[in-house]
Amino acid sequence: MSVSETKSMNRRFLRTPMREQIPTIRKSNYHEVPYGYNEEEAVAEAKRCLQCKKPLCVAGCPVNVQIPEFIRLIAEGEFDAAAKKLKETNALPAICGRVCPQETQCEGLCIVGKKGDPIAVGNLERFAADWERSAGKVAVPPMSPKNGIKIAVVGSGPAGLTVAGELSKKGFDVTIFEALHEPGGVLLYGIPEFRLPKEIVKQEIDYLQKLGVKIECNFVVGKTQTIDELMAEDGYAAVFVGSGAGLPSFMNIQGENSVGVYSANEYLTRANLMRAWQGTAKTPIFKGKRVVTVGGGNVAMDSARTALRLGAEESIIVYRRSESEMPARAAEIHHAREEGIIFHLLCNPVAILSDEKGFVTGIRAIRMELGEPDESGRRRPIPVKDSEFEINCDVVVIAIGNKPNPLIPTTTPDIEISRHGTIVANEADGRTTKQYVYAGGDIVSGAATVILAMGAGKVAANTIIQDLLS
Amino acid sequence: MSNAILNKENLAASAWRYRIHSPKIARKRQAGQFIMLRPVPETERIPLTIANADAEQGWIEIIFQVVGRTTMFLSGLDVGDEISDIAGPLGHPTRIEKFGRVICIGGGIGVAPLYPILCSLKDAGNDVTTIIGARSKAHLILEKEMKEKSDKLFVATDDGSYGHHGFVSDVFNQVQDAGDRFDSAFVIGPVMMMKVVSSLTLASGINTVVSLNPIMIDGTGMCGGCRVTVHGKTKFACVDGPEFDASGIDWEELIRRLKSYQSFEEKERNEHQCALVQ
Ligand SMILES: Cc1cc2nc3c(=O)[nH]c(=O)nc-3n(C[C@H](O)[C@H](O)[C@H](O)COP(=O)(O)OP(=O)(O)OC[C@H]3O[C@@H](n4cnc5c(N)ncnc54)[C@H](O)[C@@H]3O)c2cc1C
Ligand SMILES: Cc1cc2nc3c(=O)[nH]c(=O)nc-3n(C[C@H](O)[C@H](O)[C@H](O)COP(=O)(O)OP(=O)(O)OC[C@H]3O[C@@H](n4cnc5c(N)ncnc54)[C@H](O)[C@@H]3O)c2cc1C
Ligand code: SF4
Ligand code: SF4
Ligand code: FES
């Protein structure tokens, strides 16, 4: 093999790198970390794709994006067509390209990944969507004539947004009801700006409004009006519930209600939705000098990285299993390490320590070792005897998970709820046990992912179309 | 025009009553419920009790005291202005029954949330004795309204400028000493007052309900910032409350958590000693 041949072989197996803000700079600003591909980079990466006849990657994507087709269009320089191709199956490619756990989905199954780096499907998806948007090519798709049927959507997270978009295109009169004062769900108040710029979320929502979707904020379904009232009094023919898994879990350990202990939801909401990171914000937040975040998922990584950006000198993650069990996206763990986040793995807090005024001064933790796998298939952490130690800190963020929000379950008496508090809905069609009420996203699955919420939204939209139009 | 201020009235020193066009909330609300309100986008979302409402005419009333930045901005709005965001009605309604003889005790701005509860208690046929208090006569609110609804009303001021000279707790003791007995008590006011007064009512064997006012952010159960410990269990005041059985409350924790942001707020106040407060 000649040198140039080896070189081209290597290129085939090496991913076109994504340029990023360097860690020392980005850890004190809120701008997005990766810059995104430029046109040459995108074309180069797209050309690596083998255009498989039986693409494995597609099977790994929960909404079956036509991956080889859109990548081929990028390779040919047809960026606008690539974006339109993506949108046939995925209404929010700019978002999914940024936040999907690609390594376990599309990219995880890419055939090239068996020998080298899998094709950067996520980066390319993001590129096409960003290109379309910045070129001003976002167009309103063909719309069915209005049919006058009113649909209510509860919650404006990815599940609700997807349902609303799909049904609006089909001529339905769709209103989204959102409890908070701005739409977007976790995309807005959870995932931070440096990972998902809020401008992108806003533009996606503007786009939905162009499709005719109405959004009513500050409307708490179950309280302002119940689902039954929306249907019986206001004439909504069907209701989709996408109210998410918004109720934070705590550990129930001593000292957990000390001043300076936040749920990740509160911490990230104060930082994102209430804009504590912009100098102008008025929602106060403790900008700890040493911040301990408990947990190992995306939410924990986001909290720990937000702490740095709010000015923490040290940001520490405490997680009870080892790195390979961490549910966070690989990219987030990698970025967190680069930014200098300290990982205390295989240990778990047993108490939160505070001073006489109730302010946090540290945590007491115990070391863990991994035993036999539990129901989740991950090895169960077991405390090591007499291994307690203390970590000093002035802020603690608890990021150990969210449970379903009980507002809808408790105010909709005839809807079946699982023992985990989730709404029971048929995965294949999104139907709940209540007629003409559908559900999907985290309220059904428990805390999951953006793309799964969107997938569930799409399934429910199709069923609603079937149930109401035929 | 939803959220428009229909009427604005100064009730006492830095206490205001607003009537707001809000037909949906007016139709649904029950005693004990609150709204989350953001006067203008540059301010925080704060919880305020729905003090009164008319479903037919589509309005709700709030009564609030200017204590910090957000309430200061709110007090700067005028009739005709629209409030940026209002969500509600939130929280569990008060559990109203025919208890028999009820004592309602309110302090400071806490008299405002007590008023709708008193009205519902009367509608349910209870015999209600009410004690309200304030720092001084100038701070006293809703005396006329409370008197109209109560079977008996007592007033106390800390400085003696009106009514009994002293605290509502003293008046409660006197009422008890005079031989009055109660089946149920509702106590709302500053945390210290609720702590002291409920210890007295509980000591007399009266079931006592208090309405807690921890710091809230979303008011829908999403953040956990409003958590309080009741009977050793963590509860979210916005979705599990705001009313709780007084006998189980960890008052010290609530007091510490309410003071969390004091240093931030003092800084704010100093920076914003604006003309609005006057
Ligand atoms: C910090 C964080 C980081 C994450 N990172 C990733 C990631 O990198 N990749 C990924 O794929 N996933 C990630 N996730 C998970 C992902 O965001 C969720 O799975 C997804 O948003 C679920 O969508 P949803 O539409 O079901 O609900 P949500 O996004 O939770 O939206 C629900 C909406 O409903 C509203 N609502 C609730 N109750 C009512 C009511 N009664 N009336 C009206 N409105 C109501 C809520 O206010 C909210 O706006 C992350 C989650 C968090 C918290
Ligand atoms: C369920 C509920 C119902 C309420 N109903 C009313 C009402 O009907 N009328 C009314 O005037 N107030 C009511 N409050 C209190 C009101 O929400 C606060 O006064 C308000 O949030 C202060 O906002 P601010 O920005 O003006 O002051 P900030 O600058 O936030 O605070 C100023 C001062 O008030 C204290 N404070 C902050 N938040 C609260 C709070 N939630 N409760 C008590 N003190 C607080 C701070 O410690 C500080 O000393 C209620 C609170 C709750 C939780
Ligand atoms: S939507 Fe997500 S999983 Fe599907 S192709 Fe795009 S990045 Fe991959
Ligand atoms: S499996 Fe990989 S190489 Fe094959 S089509 Fe999908 S992205 Fe391209
Ligand atoms: S205010 Fe956020 S959970 Fe109660």
Explain what you see.
Chain A has 470 residues and is α/β, with parallel strands linked by helices. In chain A, helix 3 crosses helix 5. In chain A, the strands form four sheets. Chain A has a five-stranded parallel β-sheet. Chain A has a five-stranded parallel β-sheet with strand order 6-14-7-8-9. Chain A has helices at 3-13, 23-26, 39-47, 56-60, 67-75, 79-89, 93-99, 106-109, 121-134, 158-169, 186-189, 198-210, 227-232, 264-271, 298-309, 330-338, 407-411, 442-445, 450-469; strands at residues 150-154, 173-177, 214-216, 238-241, 247-248, 261-263, 290-294, 314-319, 342-345, 347-354, 360-373, 379-383, 389-392, 395-398, 402-403, 437-439. Chain A has 19 helices and 16 strands. Chain A folds into three domains: 3-134, Alpha-helical ferredoxin (Fumarate Reductase Iron-sulfur Protein, Chain B, domain 2), CATH 1.10.1060; 150-246 and 404-469, FAD/NAD(P)-binding domain, CATH 3.50.50.60; 249-398, FAD/NAD(P)-binding domain (3-Layer(bba) Sandwich). In chain A, strand 10 and strand 11 (360-373) form a beta hairpin. In chain A, 36% of the residues lie in helices and 16% in strands. Chain B is of the alpha/beta class. Chain B has two domains: 5-90, Elongation Factor Tu (Ef-tu), domain 3; 101-257, 3-Layer(aba) Sandwich (Rossmann fold). Helices cover 28% and strands 30% of the residues of chain B. Chain B is built from nine helices and 16 strands. A seven-stranded mixed β-sheet of chain B has the order 11-10-9-8-12-13-16, sandwiched between helices. In chain B, helix 3 links the parallel strand 8 (101-107) and strand 9. Chains A and B meet through strand 5 and helix 14 of A and helix 1, strand 7, strand 14, helix 8 and helix 9 of B. Bound molecules: flavin-adenine dinucleotide (2 copies), iron/sulfur cluster (2 copies) and FE2/S2 (inorganic) cluster.
